[in-house]
Amino acid sequence: MASTVLAALGLALCLALAVHMALPRRARSRVDAAAARLAAALRAQAERATGWRRRQRQARAAALEAERVIRRAQDAAQQRPEGEWDGNVYRPKRFDKPKKH
Questions:
Q1: What's 101's DSSP letter?
Q2: Would you say the pTM of this structure is higher than 0.90?
Q3: I want to staple 23 with a disulfide (CB 3.0 to 4.6 A). Which of 19, 28, 36, 86 is the partner?
């Protein structure tokens, strides 16, 4: 049974390729473009059906990374040494050089 189905599929493929080769160039390019559109649509459907887990995993990883960066920035802000802002430049007091007389 399986070998009969496989043989029938092989025969159908060979006939389709023979008809494709016999088509004029413009018709062949239209058939190729339609086949490419069909393949892209099928690929998009498969991606939509299977990609939701990957998107969930990426969203979860992005949220965890954002939380980690926020926590690190808050910790760094609490441990900032004494200093002053000059415009958008922060100058810690420990960078000040003693003045020479």
A1: -
A2: no
A3: 28
